[in-house]
Amino acid sequence: MRRVLTDDHPDLLDYRFNLAHLTEIAGHRDESAALFEALLPDCERVLGTRHSRTREVRERLGR
C-alpha cells in the first residue's frame, strides 16, 4: 500500500493500525507495541491529536 498511497494518506494509517492490532491478537505484543509507537506520531501529524484514531492508538499504548 505504501507504493500506491502516500505516507500521509489516512487509509494507509488505517492499514498500519490494522496490522498492529492483528499482530497484537496473534500474541506478538512487543512487535505490536512497536508498530503502534511508530504509528502514533504519524496519526498526530496527519489526523490531529484529538482524532478518534489517534486516541485509539494512544489507548493501545496505555497513554
Automatic annotation (TrEMBL):
Upper classification of the organism = Bacteria, Bacillati, Actinomycetota, Actinomycetes, Pseudonocardiales
The protein's name: Tetratricopeptide repeat protein
